Amino acid sequence: MNQFWDRVLEFCQKTTQEIGDRLMDDYGSLKPMEKADGSLVTKADQWADKKIREAIAKVFPEHGVLTEETTHTLPDTDWCWIIDPIDGTTNFTRGIPIWAISLGLLYQGTPVFGFVYLPFLNQAFHGYWYGNSGLTGYTGAFLNNQPIQTSQDSPSKSHLFNLCARSLAILQHPFPCKMRMIGVATYNILLVAAGAAIGGVEATPKIWDIAAVWVILQAAGGSFTSLGDNEIFPLEVGKNYGEVSFPTLALCRQELVATFKPLTEVL
User: What is the mean pLDDT for each group of 10 consecutive residues in the chain (267 residues)?
Assistant: First the structure.
């Protein structure tokens, strides 16, 4: 099985490097367009989406694809890639260097491998999390191929907790940590996986925002909790996820859910 994971990792590294190098040429220079849901898109998002889909079709022709910019329906294939060609399009267009290319690989509707590359920061995260899939192979979470793990600290005013733009209602109540707003859903959660933040919350992420980091956070020892009525995974074959949001709480460890979930239920 590790030979398969070697192929997957090599594919992600090569593809995101090539895409990222090209996106750097457009970084900070493109005028965004507004989509129906209010999010932004540029010609660079659309180009990257197309190139990643073409690369998957060439290397893994038997795999399905679900992407932010084109296909929102989960296909009837055991393996499916979920793509966010540019997570953080607003940052990308405004010349803020935190934006990412995100690739999550699902097996029978549940993510088992995640890869996120931040070209400007030269940071590549990846991780393996098999859950109840029956799959085996490499384990752990990594930043630039070095192992990472979540913090074991207790929350305090010297620790960080990440918010998204739609989660400010949390501030109505006293909060045990300092707040940060990154502007990129994947990096919000990756900072928890890497031990830089105690936790983070995303009020309205789409499936392409969380598929890859769902794996990486848990592989690093963290906890990923749905703030909705149901569990997020497995996804349903044939369902359109284009308008579905998945409010989520990311924490450095499971024991802190009891502390932070009540503070985020206002969302």
Answer: 96 98 90 73 92 98 96 97 96 95 98 98 98 96 98 96 91 87 96 98 96 98 93 96 96 96 84
Between CA 26 and CA 55 the distance in angstroms is: 21
Read off φ and ψ for residue 248, nearest 5 degrees: -140, 150
CATH architecture observed for domain 2-148: 2-Layer Sandwich (3.30)
Q: Residue 117 is encoded by which pair of tokens?
A: 């590359």
Residue count of the chain: 267
E-assigned strand segments in the chain: 33-34, 40-41, 64-67, 79-87, 100-107, 110-118, 123-128, 140-143, 146-148, 160-163, 178-181, 199-202, 223-226, 248-251
CA angle 139–143–149, rounded 5-degree value: 60
Comparing CA positions, the residue from 88, 90, 111 lying closest to residue 205 is 88
CATH fold, domain 160-264, is D-Maltodextrin-Binding Protein; domain 2 (3.40.190)
